[in-house]
Amino acid sequence: MKKLLLSVAFISFVSFANAQCQAGFTFTVSGDTVLIYDASTHSGPVNYTIDFGDGYGGSWMNNIPSPLRNYYPYAGKYNVCMTISDTNPSTCHSTFCDSITITSGAPFPCNAAFTYFVDTSSTFPIRFQNSMLPYYGSKWLWNFGDGSYDSTSGNSTEHQYATAGIYYVCLTTTTNTGAVCTYCDTISAIPCASLLNVTFNKNLNGNTASFTSYCSGSTLTNPYYWSFGDGTTSNSQNATHTYLYNGTYSVCLTYRGDNMGCYKTVCDTITINNAALLPCNALFSYYPDTMAVNSLHFYDLSSTDIVGWSWSFPGGTPSTSNSQGVSVAYAAPGTYTAYLTVANQSGVTCSYSNTVNVGSSCSNTSAYFSMSPAGTPHVWNVVNMATGTPPITYSWNWGDGSAYSSGPNPSHTYAQAGWYNICLTIADANGCGSSYCTYDTLYKYSPESIISIYVTSPTGVNDVSALATEVSVYPNPANNNITIQAPQNASIEISNIEGQLTGNFVMNNSKASLDVSAYPCGVYLVKVKTENGIAVKRFVKE
Length: 542
Hints:
The chain is mainly β.
C-alpha cells in the first residue's frame, strides 16, 4: 500500500465509539521550555501517552501532571502527539498532534549513522536502521551502493539487492537548519534469489507453445508460477499453452524459495503468427479538468496491446492528438463529440466516439461503476456509483448486442466469454448526461463459461447530489499532490481503478493535501462518506 502524506495545520486521528473520548492539549513556549496543558475529554479512566517529537515521551495512568514540562535544548520544529485510550481501544482511542516551534537554543547537531542486518524471516533483504536520534524536520537520503536510492523512508528502510556482493552504503542526513552530514559503511549482501537457479526453454508448434523448466534451490512441493503474457497462468512444473491471438508475448516463470517471499523470476518473449488477429476495441472516458475552465481530460480505456492513438475533438483545442491521454479546452460550455481511433500490435484498427458535457452546470453529473469478481465462479458484482440531480435515468449497454437495461441495479448474463464494452449512460433532472464504459479482458479466456453480472448501489447512499457539491479534488489531472475538499469528519477512501484500496483517513478540516507522487500513473477514486451519504470523485495521476 502506498503511503499517504497529509499536510494540514495539525493532524488529529480519532477512532472511538464514545463521543466523550477526544485527545487534546494546549501549550505555551518560554525559551527552551514548553508547558503542555491537558485538554482531553473522556468519560472514564484512560491511559495517556505523549511523544514530545524529540525522541522522548512518557505514559501516565488516568491523568497527567498539568502543566507537563519538557525542555528542548535545540532550536527547531517538533511534532508533539498525545494519545488517550482505555482498556478497550474500540471504546476510546484518540490521538491529537500539534507542532511546537523552539526559537532559542543551539542548532540541532547533524549526526548520521546506521546499523543493518539481514532479515532472513522474509525475502532476505538488508534492513537498515538509523542509529542516531530522529529529529522532526530532518531529511534522510539512503544510497544503497547499487545505483538505488531512498529519500522517503528516513529513519529505517530495507533494500533487496539483485546480486550477491560487497556494497558501499551511505546515509546522508540534512537537518532543518540545513546542516548536512554523511555516514558510510560496507555490507555483504547475499540475496535469497541468488541461491535459486531458474531457467526454461520453449518450443512452438503453430499457436501452441510448450515450456520446460530447469530450476533448483527450493524444497517446496509446488514452487512454480507461469505467466504466459495473455492473462493466463499455470502452476505446473512444465507447461503447455495455446494462444488465441497473434502477437508477441512475454512469458515469465517465477520460482519460489523455501522462505516466505523469496523468489526469482526469469522471462522470455514468444511470437505467435498462426492464430487469429488480436481483436481491437476502442474506448475512452473523460472528466472535467479542475484547473481549467471548460476543459476536459480524456483517457484511453481501449483493449490491451494498443500501439497507436488518433484523437479528434471538433470545437476543442487541441483539435487532434496522438497521445494516450490528453486535456482539451473548449471555447464555451455545451455538448460536443469526441472521436478516438486506435491500432493494436496486430495492425487492426477500430474507433469509438461519444458525446461529452462541457461546463460547470453538469460538473456533478457523472456516470461511473466499478467491477469485481464475486465469490461464485463466473459471477461479477458491479457497483453503480453514478451521481447527479435526481431523478436519474440509466441505460446499460452490455456490449453483446442484447437489449439495453434500465434502472440503477439491473443484472445481465452472457452466453459466452468474449470481449465486451460495458457502458452506462445517465441523464439527470437538469438535462445533464454522462457516459462511462469499462473494458474488461477477464472475460476473454473462458469460452466455456457463462458469465453473470449483478449491479448494486453502495450501502448507505442517499441523495448524494448535495454532498457532491461540497466535495472537490484538484488539480485533476495531478502529478505530485492533490487537495481534497470535503466536510469535516468525512471518511475518505482512495482506491485505484481496479477497486484496490490505496489509503484512507478522516478529514480533520475542510481541506487536506495528499502526496500522490509515488502513485503509479492511472485513474483513482476518492470516495467521501458522511452520515448523509457517499460521493465519489475521480482523478488521474499523470
